[in-house]
Amino acid sequence: xxxxxxxxxxxxxxLTHNYKRGLNPNTIVSPLNPYPNKFISSLxxxxxxxRRRHKPNTLRCSASSxxxxxxxxxxxxxxxxxxPLFPLPLVLFPGAILPLQIFEFRYRMMMHTLLQTDLxxxxxxxxxxxxxxxxxxxxxxxxxxxxxxxxxxxxxxxQERFRxxxxxxxxxxxxxxxxxxxxxxxxxxxxxxxxxxxxxxxxMKDVIRLSNRLGGKPEKEVQDLRRNLxxxxxxxxxxxxxxxxxxxxxxxxxxxETATRLKREKETLRNTLNYLTxxxxxxxxFPTS
Length: 289
Hints:
Archaeosine Trna-guanine Transglycosylase, Chain: A, domain 4; five-stranded mixed β-barrel; globular
């Protein structure tokens, strides 16, 4: 199988919007999400996980988890390093947890190398239509299990974002030179960012509440979703819940300003909430048996 070429990932303008004429109370449709039920279920799942967490900063991005053997301090945006890449049909965000099963021979080779070095590799979005993106996120192996048939079960945590600048080799697996991607200082003040993050959290709570109602679940008050996260890591957490819309997630990952990312997430959640509200009204008028 030929390895995919590294090409720029799809821009936000290339996102396809799926609209449906009718509203089925059991199928929630969002303009940015062709798989709405998966998106809603993802929000509910993340809310469930947050309620079970004991440590409030579980999703906070941290450069300290990078290996001290290769980093004497926090990575800088102008640093150039070599990184093995793992193209996947999903998007990893800083702070997010990603379970993986490694069974393909070339990636088992990669794992054997990583176990002898620093347990870090690049997760980069790839699909048959768009090819492989040039912006991804470092996945750090925080737990692994090697099976007797040489497969691996991994638990990875998203760390810094990166941009591919040069492809070093393609065999036996992709290795590229990358630079670190950081959010630029926002033109909005810190207080405005906090207010924007609080608005996004409010929309998330409403989406979870209404989706629970439509699913026949008790309408319990949604607890704190931010868990003391600053606006930037919170924006990454929100993006990680948009499962079922990987191109939109990739567009969010590539943004280099927290305010812009939060505003885009706010718009997506607002659109989703509008559809949920309409579906809820339809269900009230035409209740199912």
